[in-house]
């Protein structure tokens, strides 16, 4: 039963995550925070900027492990589909993090 519920949630979330993916301008303020941080990691202006984005990034609200996870899983979709790939991949990774945090008893 839990697999069915999680699967349904994943399908519905995937369909809803395809909305408002046109670019950064379409994102809500909270989603821009993660988008901008991951974009800085994926598109540094140089080696020092890359190290700075990895270590500090200018924003510590969600914790660096979230930024690392999003950047790792968004690298290929962002290269293939640009900002749209980054937005959808970020949303799906965050969905996976929430699903894996469920406690199964």
Structure report:
There is one protein chain. The chain is mainly α. It contains five helices and no strands. The protein has one domain. Helix 1 runs antiparallel to helix 5 (83-100), helix 2 (29-42) packs across helix 3 (47-55) and helix 2 (29-42) crosses helix 4 (64-81). The radius of gyration is 15 Å and the shape is globular.
Could you give the count of β-strands? Answer: 0
Biggest β-sheet strands, sense, barrel: none
Total of helices: 5
Radius of gyration: 15 Å
Q: Residue ranges: pLDDT <50 for 5 or more in a row?
A: none
Number of domains: 1
Question: What class would the helix/strand composition place it in?
Answer: mainly alpha
Helix and strand element order: HHHHH
Average of the residue pLDDT scores: 83
